[in-house]
Amino acid sequence: MFLELRMVFLHRAGFRGIVFCALLGAAMARAADPELSGFVKDENDAPVAGAHITVRAAAPASRGSWQAETDPAGAFSVALPAPGDYRIDVERQGYYELKDRSIHVEGAIELMLMINPVREVFQSVDVNEQPSPVDISQTRNQERLTGTEVNDIMYPNSHSLRDAMQLIPGVVESRSGELHFNGSAESQVQYVLNGFNIADPISNQLHTTLPVEGVRGLDYSSGRYSPEYGQGSAGVLAISTENGADAFHYTATDFIPGLQIQQGIRFGNWYPRLGVSGPIVRGRAWFSDTFTSEYTNSLVTGLPDGENTRSGWLGSNLLHTQVNLTPRNILYADFLALVDNEGRLGLGPLDPVSTTQNVHARQYFGSLKDQFYFGGGSLIELGYAHNEFANTDTPQGPEFFVFSPQGRSGNYFVTSTQGTTRDEVRLHGFAPQLHAAGTHQIEAGVDTDFLRYNGDFSRTGYDLIGLSGQLLSRTTFFGSGIFRVTDIEVGSWILDTWRISKRLQIDAGLRNDWDRAVADDGWSPRVSFSWAPFRAGHTRVAGGFALTHDAVPLDPFGRVLDQDALTTSYSAPGVPSGPPTVTSFDRGPESLKIPNATNWSLSVDHQVSEHLTAGVAYLRRRGASGFDFVNTLAPDAPPSLLPLPNGAAGGIYQLETLRRDNYDSVQFKVHQTLAGQAEWMVSYTRSRAQSNALVDPNLPVALQLLPSFVPLPWETPNRFLGWTYLPLPFKNWAVSALVDARSGFPFSAQLDTGAVSGGVNSYRYPVNFDLDLALERMVTLRGYRFALRGGVDNLTNARNPTAVNNTVGSPHFLQFYGYEGRHYVLRIRFFGRAKK
Asked: Which DSSP letter does residue 82 get?
């Protein structure tokens, strides 16, 4: 006998719902030994791995619950004590919960449970997407930011996914615009888009602009995480994109140009974005396409009128598709195209228009990923991606660049054209689940990258001016500056997820990374645990150890093939103090290593109520074998802030792996989700980030080692972060707010010769404080849905400077510049036709 039952539960709003489809198969089975098994899938029939299944007896007097977790193929199995009526819950981060669904069990039952991914909605609904964060199956140290939060929370530059990342506790943006995750350099995190590396191979930084409306979620894992990822000593940021569905969905944001009210009313920045998703073939193939563009007309305070603005245009389009070739074979494809043209890049209070650059950049990314599902929970995933970057930087003129106590002047001294590509091949497989003192889920994989980098550099030179206005030195460059660098990276890994009991899980894995450029390989053992010490399961203790590695950047290998410098020092106007000195770069005779870090982490999370959690986490990271250039002719020279330190003395800078970084942090966090999209979060992080290298944010690789550890330029010992999106008592009104208060970034004082005066990074900017507030109104106009938002960035008009005069003896020494001021923000979003 075979019985099929299909049940659909839709929310009254009709916009998003939970679909629960059950296929009940009753065969000859003992009624006294019932068993639930089946699959969890999303709306496009793709398996949902890691979903938590809870089965409870329906009778009020009955006690007890039975849990299971879906394997990579979405399969699960639960043995029940007796026939009867039960209720089923399904939870998975990034999906809406399936709650209290009734089922009657007599014998062996097979179910198909369908859950919908979280998407933005037009109005609040009484459905929450957040599963319990104390889930024992999650051993990694992870922070998640959903696409809904990215679009709901008020933060500066809300069109920018990079700026949204600062909503994650532990993530800050430095004065140079780089992102820093848990005290790391931007290059020490691996960035993946739907499983593929999208970092620029030259610097390993994230130079990709993605539409915020096209992102489903950001998952940042640090300290302890799967050995599947191995090119980020400080963690991995996994970006997942939206899928299409059988219903068409449209969005349009900021499609009306805005005005900027700052030093008068004028045409300001404009960030129009469009999105469309839907079926290619209903029930078989779907697409999601999002486009973002940025027209910037930014104002820089502290500069004369007419010379205080910079403009540019950027366009980026991301297309994601899914095709179900068969029920067990799914093909995914992505294509990204990005064009960026920026004028006056680098404009600042101490950097006038003449010192800026015009930048023309483009990026193309394409990937294919094929997933094959087999019986018994086994899965194989094969993928290929091609990533291409091209960048041209042009200064405003041919004049020499000038460093003076009053700031910079002249024209920037570097003209460059750079191009790089990455071809990535991935193989990832899951074996059927094994049973031995619990359950074991074994997975393994191989990842191979083929990298190419072409550089063409031409430099004029720069002058160093003293306090009295005299010329101290002049540096020029010679050589072709044309080079080509190639590299091959191979990573392989294996992981055993060992579920000992429903209250204890241990993950143990091993990874190996080999890099041809350094002729070195690194082993990465990783082990982590997750334990519920109390029977109720509302508290989780998790921790672990991981030895992680960084990707090898191509920039230092290009630098040794690049131009050399010639510096002449002057004792009087027009009178050289000696012959010119040469500064060159060389790989050196010493063998190089892949940069690595040891990570120890421990966290405790407690579920206070159904959707209120509190936690504390500790992270200790010790980085070693980082890339740096050491001047073999003057290794102990005093630290200098010039582009070429100790240029007057010359030197041979050899590429070494002697840099070390230290990071320690304790983080406290409280998070609550409410009805619909409403939620709030507050966190406080106490941290320390230090290095033995003199790090210049403008240089990819440090040029000086120090005898002791000093604060990194982005160190923030104290940071309080809080944000919320809450409904107001008035229908269809909501408030969004952000509070971000942190220690000011450190900086060094310098003499007019460029040498550091006093301790490195011994000064600090003032405390940085941001309070952003917005009101949002949901409206329906002529049958179409809109969301109107008006708000203020930096509501308190905090100064928050971005530049400082750091030259000792200057009349403006320790004067701060670049106050951001208060900004008024208007956003209009279009969601398509209102559903009846």
From this structure: S
